[in-house]
Amino acid sequence: MEGGGRVDRSAGDGADAGGAGGEAGVCCVVEVSGAVAFAGYAAVFDVVDRAGDVVRRGAFAGAGVVPLLWQHRGGAVGSLSVVAEDARGLRVEGVVADLELARLVRSGAVAGLSVGYRATSVRQGVRRELLSVELVEVSLVAVPMQALARVEVVP
């Protein structure tokens, strides 16, 4: 889904994860008065998602801080302080302020991350390659489009 003001919520999935360099997801989780602080990857480069899309390096270039949502819907459930590309993917850091969702993240019951975006440059081949996107939001999700975009709770 691209253009026309529609939001594409895929980020790639682990179906073609061989050689992706390990699992994406949250690298650390810290409780702050009921809220949960976390850091991890909302998308991993060069991994095919369930929709057949592949996010390429540079796709999120210039992305700023966006809202943190639950399942790509509703109001913010916390906040992000860092949204930036590195060699692996789109790294995010933030805090889940919604206490019930924070409890679910802490327990591992909610273990997915996902991105909402508008594709601005794509290359169509065997797969749709996302070369440039406008990042709209990052979500905690029950089932991520990209299997490697997972929350990893550190005890």
Present the secondary structure layout.
Elements: E1 24-32, E2 35-44, E3 53-55, E4 68-70, E5 73-85, E6 89-96, H1 99-107, E7 112-124, E8 128-141, E9 149-150
Parallel strand pairs: 1-9, 3-8, 4-8
Antiparallel strand pairs: 1-2, 2-6, 4-5, 5-6, 7-8
How does this structure look, described?
The protein has about 160 residues and is mostly beta strands. Helix content is about 5%, strand content about 50%. It contains one helix and nine strands, in the order ββββββαβββ. It has one helix at about 100-105; strands at about 25-30, 35-45, 55, 70, 75-85, 90-95, 110-125, 130-140, 150. Strands 1, 2, 3, 4, 5, 6, 7, 8 and 9 form a nine-stranded mixed β-sheet that branches. The radius of gyration is 14 Å and the shape is globular. Residues about 1-25 have low confidence and may be disordered.
